C-alpha cells in the first residue's frame, strides 16, 4: 500500500499482484493503464506500436514504459493510476475526435453562463477572478490572466472579445487542459459546480438536507432574494422590468428543462404584453419556496446560488418559519407569506377573484386557456410588504386534502346573482372551519349584478354575525380599470393577526397598537428633520 501522505493526490493506493488475471472485455468504465515492463532490457521505445492500440481502446487512459530494475517511471505509473481513477478523461474527451464530449461541453457551457455575472457573453477580468477564486481558492495573478488570454488569442480568432473570454475561448481552454493531461483542472471546475463523475448535477448539490418541522412554512431569506434579483437584472436586457419570452428562455438556459409553464403567467403579475414582471418573478419564486421547497432548492442549484452567493448550500437561502402554534401563542408573526384558501360553488367567481389580485379585470382574464389555481402577489400591511398566496379550492367536498384546509385565512365566495350559491359557503364553514382557529371572510362576488335573495335559512349577513365573521365583502372584477385591492390587504391583515377579533379590528386601540411600527418611523422622521434644520440654521 502506498500511504496517502506520500502521494500528490493524497489517496492511499493498494497494489495487488495476481497469479492470474481475467480481463473481461465487456464495455466497462474501469480505466486501464497499459504498462510496458522491463524497459531496461530494450534500447528502443515500443511506444510507436502501443499508440495505435491506445487510440483504439478509449478505456486505456495512458501507456507507460517502466523498469522495476532501475525504477524508471515506477512512481509515475502509480501517479497516473491514481489520476485515472480520480480524474478520468473518458467522460470528458473523445480521443478519436480530439474534442470534448457533448455532455462535458454542456456542463461547461452552463458553468460559463452562471459565471457570466452580467450576461454579456464574455468573462471579464472580474468574473474570471471570481471564477478562479471559487474553483481554486486562489486569485489569478494579473500576468497569469494575460497569459491565458494570449494562449487563446493565438489559437482562436474569437476566443477573446473585449479583453474577456468568450464561451468559445473558455471551451477551447478546457480542451487544451485535457489534451495536455491537465484534466484535473477541468474536473475541479466541474465538481465545484456540482457535477458528479457522469457529468450530472449531483443529488447532494441539488437537494441539501433541510428539516421542516410540522406547522412551519418555508420562505426565501433576504440573501436569496438579492441573488434572484441579480439573476433577473442580468437577464432583463432591455430594462423594462419584465421578462420577454426570449429573456425568460435565456434565464432558464442553465436548467435541464423549462421549469415555468404558461400557467405561471396567470399566477403572478404580468405587464400589458402578458410578460412576467419583476414583482411577478419574485412572487413565483416565493410560491415555489412555499409550496415545494425541494423544487426551490433544485432550481437554486441550477442557477448556482450557493456558488455565486458564496453560501455553504442552497439551504442557506431558505428560512423555515417557527411553528404557527407559537405565533398564535405570542400573538405575533415573523412570516412574510400568508396562504388564503378560496372556497365557493362552481361558477361563483373564485377564479375572477384570484385574477383580480393580479390586476386583471373580467375583460382581461375571461379568455385564457392556461388556468391557474394559485395567485400570488404582494400587499402592504402597515408599511410592511407581505405576500398573499390565494389558492382556489376545487368545489368538490369529497376531494378536500389537508392542504386545502390548512391555511392562514379562508375566503368563502358566493355569487350575489345566484340564489343557490351561498348554501355551499355555509356548508363548508360549518363542516370545516366553524371550530377551527382559522379566520374566515365571506365574499359577496359579482356585486355589479343585481343581488337576489339567497335560498338559505338566514341571510349571509345574519350568518356572518351569528358566527362572528366580518360582514360579507362586496366584490366585483367586472370593472373598467383594475379591480380594487382593498380586500386583499384586509385578508392579509386578518391572516397576520388571527387572534384579533372583529370587534378589535374595528377599535381604534388595535390600529394604534398595530401601527406602532409606523409611528416609530414617523418619530424618527421628525427627529431627523429637527437635526437638519438645526444645521441649516447655523
Ligand atoms: N358580472 C360578473 N361576472 C363575473 C364576475 N366574476 C366572475 N364572473 C363570471 O362568472 C363566471 C364564473 O366565474 P369564475 O371566476 O370562473 O368562477 P369560479 O368560481 O372560478 O368557477 P369554477 O372554477 O368553474 O368553479 C364567468 O363567466 C365569469 O365571467 C364579476 O365580478 N361580475
Ligand atoms: Ca460578463
Ligand atoms: Ca425585459
Ligand atoms: Mg509475482
Ligand atoms: Mg375557477
Automatic annotation (TrEMBL):
Top-level lineage group: Eukaryota
Catalytic activity: GTP + H2O = GDP + phosphate + H(+)
Localization, UniProt: Mitochondrion outer membrane
Underlying gene: RHOT1
Gene3D superfamilies, per database record: EF-hand, P-loop containing nucleotide triphosphate hydrolases
Organism placement in taxonomy: Eukaryota, Metazoa, Chordata, Craniata, Vertebrata
Residue ranges of every copy of the EF-hand domain listed in the record: 223-258
GO cellular component, one term: mitochondrial outer membrane
Bilayer topology annotation: Single-pass type IV membrane protein
PROSITE patterns, per the entry: EF_HAND_1 (PS00018), EF_HAND_2 (PS50222), MIRO (PS51423)
Transmembrane segments: 510-529
Protein name: Ras homolog family member T1
Main location: mitochondrion
Pfam families: EF_assoc_1, EF_assoc_2
Keywords, in A-Z order: Calcium, GTP-binding, Hydrolase, Membrane, Metal-binding, Mitochondrion, Mitochondrion outer membrane, Nucleotide-binding, Repeat, Transmembrane, Transmembrane helix
